[in-house]
């Protein structure tokens, strides 16, 4: 019995096997670009790993870009703050010099002019840019953050306490609600005397007691703290019960809201009983220019690694409030929002007092303000330096991670060149042999298989 095989079947079977040999050779040829993975079907397990590594590589690249941008931003900020602290150090020295009562009018005028130039330079440094962004403007980084008024305004005069005074009048934070008191408002009574108002509890103290009288208490007991019942001479009830705040009278920059009403002793809320008599008060002010901050207090975050977000650790900018602190006109208990320019305006007060040749004020409040302004910027610069160091460390870590990820991608997707060369030679040989064999065994016609 004979089996008949049609020529079509023979040809179809041969073509199918030849195509498979050609496909194997083509797939091997694809690997000539260095990758053995071009589609999931090439190796589903390896392809899954490859995709996962690619995601990690993209994340790593993004984090490296974030870190590089952040470091550049912080270097720009740090450079500006270094210049600021240098200027503030010089400003401190000029304040000490101006406090010398041997200076004549022309000497004070010259010092005041130099101080104004230094403050203007601080404002200019506050407007430092990185690319098209203002580095000290918070998230409002496309708006110039600092501007100085051309006209002078009436600004409230604060009594700035030195460290010894602050320790005494702040008292024990465990029992005294006026803890961390750094400033009081200066008032003039219709009795002709000067008083200092603790805006947190409404207590009034004489100028003599705040300036020197408290020292007698400390001489007797070095741990002594203020006792309002005996140390104060009266109390302004509207501030004591919290119905009145600094914000009722002053803007956050310290500018008095209505200077005309302050000229007369007509505000019934600003009265107290002193030595059995009702005394009316008005706020002491100083005529000076004002710096206004147009940024916000929001952080600019540049994420440096995956996982949970860390808003504080990922913040790369410095805001006006961090740079120039707060004072009695814009602190948390004032009722105003932070101005972002407190120390600049305090320094402008110092400059105004230099122009006025007020040596007594400069020798106490002036020097304390200059020290505080410098210390505030130095403290902020230190914090930024720590964050910059952290980002620098993360940059090194991300570089190491990138090497590992690249190695993983290479291991799972790269072609073994030596092995590929052998496989290609085998595939090409098999393909050529198939072509040669096919030419010999394929029937010339159907008659050859008829018997």
UniProtKB/TrEMBL annotation:
Where the record annotates domain Flagellin N-terminal, the positions are 5-132
InterPro entries assigned: Flagellin (IPR001492), Flagellin_N (IPR001029)
Whether Amino-acid biosynthesis counts among this entry's keywords is no
Can you list the GO cellular component terms from the UniProt entry? Answer: bacterial-type flagellum
Provide the GO MF annotations for this entry: structural molecule activity
Give the UniProt keywords, A-Z.
Answer: Cell projection, Cilium, Flagellum
Q: Which domain of life is it from?
A: Bacteria
Under the heading Pfam families, the entry gives:
Flagellin_N (PF00669)
Protein's UniProt name: Flagellar hook-associated protein 3
From the broadest rank down, the organism's phylogenetic lineage runs: Bacteria, Bacillati, Bacillota, Negativicutes, Selenomonadales
């Amino acid at each position: 019995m004979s089996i008949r095989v049609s020529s079509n079947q023979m040809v179809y079977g041969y073509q199918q096997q030849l195509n498979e040999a050609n496909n194997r050779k083509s797939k091997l040829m694809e690997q000539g670009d260095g990758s053995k993975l071009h589609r999931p079907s090439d190796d589903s397990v390896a392809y899954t790993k490859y995709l996962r590594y690619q995601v990690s590589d993209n994340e790593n690249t993004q984090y490296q870009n974030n870190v590089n941008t952040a470091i550049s931003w912080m270097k720009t900020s740090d450079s500006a703050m270094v210049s600021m602290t240098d200027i503030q150090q010089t400003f401190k020295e000029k304040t000490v010099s101006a406090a010398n009562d041997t200076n004549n009018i022309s000497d004070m005028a010259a010092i005041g002019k130099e101080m104004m130039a230094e403050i203007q330079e601080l404002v200019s440094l506050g407007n430092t840019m990185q690319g098209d962004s203002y580095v000290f403007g918070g998230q409002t980084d496309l708006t110039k953050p600092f501007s100085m008024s051309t006209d002078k305004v009436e600004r409230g005069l604060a009594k700035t306490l030195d460290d010894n005074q602050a320790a005494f009048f702040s008292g024990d934070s465990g029992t005294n609600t006026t803890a961390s008191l750094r400033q009081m408002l200066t008032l003039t009574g219709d009795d002709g005397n000067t008083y200092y108002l603790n805006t947190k509890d409404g207590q009034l103290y004489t100028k003599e007691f705040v300036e020197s009288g408290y020292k007698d208490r400390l001489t007797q007991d070095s741990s002594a703290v203020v006792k309002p019942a005996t140390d104060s001479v009266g109390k302004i009830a509207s501030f004591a019960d919290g119905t009145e705040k600094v914000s009722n009278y002053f803007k956050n920059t310290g500018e008095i809201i209505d200077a005309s009403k302050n000229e007369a002793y007509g505000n019934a809320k600003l009265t107290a009983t002193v030595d059995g008599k009702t005394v009316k008060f008005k706020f002491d002010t100083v005529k000076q220019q004002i710096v206004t901050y147009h940024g916000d207090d929001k952080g600019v975050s540049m994420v440096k690694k995956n996982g949970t977000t860390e808003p504080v650790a990922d913040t790369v900018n410095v805001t006006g409030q961090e740079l120039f602190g707060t004072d009695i006109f814009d602190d948390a208990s004032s009722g105003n929002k932070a101005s972002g320019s407190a120390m600049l305006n305090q320094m402008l007060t110092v400059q105004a007092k230099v122009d006025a040749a007020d040596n007594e004020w400069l020798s106490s409040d002036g020097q304390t303000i200059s020290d505080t302004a410098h210390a505030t910027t130095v403290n902020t610069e230190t914090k930024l330096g720590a964050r910059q160091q952290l980002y620098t460390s993360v940059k090194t870590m991300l570089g190491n991670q990138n090497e590992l990820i690249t190695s993983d991608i290479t291991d799972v997707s790269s072609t073994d060149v030596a092995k590929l060369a052998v496989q290609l030679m085998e595939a090409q040989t098999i393909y050529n042999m198939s072509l040669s064999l096919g030419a010999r065994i394929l029937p010339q016609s159907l008659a050859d298989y008829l018997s």
